[in-house]
């Protein structure tokens, strides 16, 4: 029986993926690198420090450290989220359904904790989450399952009794590797890809969620 719901954040609760893309394109461009929109889409769900380190190792640049570049990208995303407050459709519907089903609610994100806090505050969602976990300081980010396992452990609930909500394939793999039920809401331009078949439920928006999706 499902006892907890664990939500991803970027691209699921908040429409921040375009902000991450814009920030990467801008900051890497300042470093003389041509990072395209397609490049940023391909790394959706991956921790930002892993993305930055990948570009440093494969292309390199002169000047700021990887940590400095991560900081500049993160600050830009925080600024944009705080300004625009772009909540995804159906978020309140999904959270209310989880409450109706008496599920504990937590968050497991690849984003830095300060971005998580800034986003939840901007969207007035902080009170909904009993636990919030970031993969920021873990050895591995998604698609590794550790952040999901940590969230389940903090709730005192077996991972197999948790349902995870994701929008990215890296996140989906993390959730399934943690042996959780997985509900995905992929972006429309990738939703038709066959790889989503490993999810338990695929929705086009969170407002399609039903109680049956949660408990069956």
UniProtKB/TrEMBL annotation:
One of its GO terms (molecular function) is mannitol-1-phosphatase activity. Its EC number is 3.1.3.22, 3.1.3.50, 3.1.3.68. Keywords: Carbohydrate metabolism, Hydrolase, Magnesium, Metal-binding. Belongs to the HAD-like hydrolase superfamily. CbbY/CbbZ/Gph/YieH family. This is Hexitol phosphatase HxpB. InterPro entries: Beta-PGM-like, HAD-like_sf, HAD-SF_hydro_IA, HAD_sf, PGP-like_dom2. SUPFAM superfamilies: HAD-like (SSF56784). Pfam families: Hydrolase. Its cofactor is Mg(2+). It comes from the Bacteria. It comes from Enterovibrio norvegicus.
């Amino acid at each position: 029986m499902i006892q907890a719901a664990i939500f991803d954040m970027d691209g699921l609760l908040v429409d921040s993926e375009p902000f991450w893309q814009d920030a990467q394109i801008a900051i890497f461009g300042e470093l003389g690198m041509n990072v395209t929109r397609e490049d940023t889409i391909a790394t959706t769900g991956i921790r930002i420090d892993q993305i930055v380190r990948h570009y440093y190792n494969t292309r390199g640049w002169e000047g700021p450290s990887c940590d400095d570049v991560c900081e500049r990208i993160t600050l830009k995303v925080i600024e944009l989220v705080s300004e625009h407050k772009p909540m995804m459709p159906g978020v309140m519907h999904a959270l209310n359904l989880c409450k109706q089903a008496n599920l504990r609610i937590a968050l497991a994100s690849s984003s830095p904790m300060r971005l998580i806090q800034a986003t939840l505050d901007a969207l007035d969602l902080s009170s909904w989450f009993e636990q919030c976990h970031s993969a920021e300081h873990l050895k591995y980010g998604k698609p590794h399952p550790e952040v999901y396992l940590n969230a389940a452990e903090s709730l005192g609930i077996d991972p197999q009794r948790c349902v995870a909500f994701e929008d990215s394939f890296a996140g989906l793999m993390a959730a399934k590797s943690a042996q959780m039920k997985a509900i995905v809401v992929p972006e429309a331009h990738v939703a038709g890809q066959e790889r989503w078949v490993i999810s338990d439920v695929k929705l086009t928006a969170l407002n399609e969620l039903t109680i049956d999706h949660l408990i069956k």
